[in-house]
Structure prediction request, 198 residues.
Amino acid sequence: MVIARALLPMILVAAAAGAQTLPLRHTVDGHVVPVGEGGIATLVVDAAFRYVGGQRFVLLGVADAEQHAFVAADAAGNIQRFYWVQFEQYLAGSQGSYDYAQDQAVALNGREWRAQVRRYSTPADPASDRGHLYALFAAAGLRVPSPAIRTRLVYVTSTDRRSELMIIYAEASGTDRQPDATEIDAMIVRAQAGLRIR
Prediction:
């Protein structure tokens, strides 16, 4: 997200003290994530990625968020690439809506998604959604790549723009320099290559 990503750092699942966890709304079957929102039935992640698990929680009393993670890792548990699927919606009493007007428009399965590509090498803030995802990886004995480059694909699934589906594809990167236009285009292509949206 842009606005919402900054406003909605996540309270981690299970292991985090005081975290409020909720039952998953989406049950992954192999590499298939049921969506059932915004006219999308399922999301299928390439078989090269292993499903790590899912978690759902309330984001600072503002939104309901659910994450599912798939990784391609070596025998030592070092993640080379991963997909992170996140369902998010504002709670009824919360203000706000999702806005990605500044991100690049990308057509996927006949729908307009919004894409953003960037690199990072700094540790994830434990209160952020990336921080919580990384905690899920750590609990599974996995180590995240750093520096890494990632593509964020977002589809706002409701007409009131208060629900979204976010897919992040990330991979190990040899530098923390921000990507140029050619690298951005290539990353968006690679992010789409491991997905089938029905």
Q: What stands out?
A: Residues 181-193 form the longest helix (13 residues).
